[in-house]
Specification:
By secondary structure, this protein is an alpha/beta fold. It is 38% helix and 26% strand.
Length: 278
Amino acid sequence: MNVEQLNAVAGAAVSTFDNMLGLAVERENVFLCETPHPLGEVSSLVTFSGSVNGLCVFTLDRSLAAWVARNLQEVEEPSANEIADTVGELANIIFGAAKARLAKQEVNMSLPEILIGRTRLIDFPDYPIVGVAFATSWGRIHTQFALDAFTPPKRPKILVVDDDLMVLEVFRRQLADDFDVFPASAGSEALQLVRDNPIDIVISDYRMPNMNGLEVLLRASQERPSAIRMLVTSYSWEPHVQLAQDRRVVTGVLEKPLRPDVLRAAVLQALNQGVAAP
């Protein structure tokens, strides 16, 4: 389990009790939980899906649950149903705040399912159950997490080759938000990057000293045949360029002058199709 999900729920719980209820909450140590039962009397079970899968059980001691119900429901002696409803409402607020903290991870959370008592056997998924406890003056809060690890989506790796450093920087900035960009100002540098990294796309200027773009793409195709290879040139009519396309050394040609936004669109299209945009 990634600690980000745990911290998001824990932080939302502390903030909610403090700001909404005026109750100080002290977070205690994280521990491995061996029981498949709730750790307190009134619990909310929330299922995670999307980029993170599993579930979390959020539990209040009965004395704390009753105190929360008295404050939120404004009743002197809340009934069992009023306590359960209040814990469900509180869980909605806490997990809604936690989801907002995890917005970049595209985490989905179910509505809370209320559990009463400690005897309910929870069908935890086959992940380690991590517990976090909190102390308050009215009782304890317990959380149990059984979540898979969050794995960020793979960012495609783009190698951009141009002997003009200003052009390299402009293209790097245009692509850096969505891709891992490897700039190279010479063919030899580019080929070393191809050898050392699982490059997905090689984009090379044509007219460069020592090693031109066709040579770069030819040797890149030998080092990493799966990479998409795109040539940037004003000379697409030249026989050498057309022959390289026919032999699939070059899988696409981008015409100069090339605007950065056009380059980005071509890269996205190439990745979606598995070949370079014509």
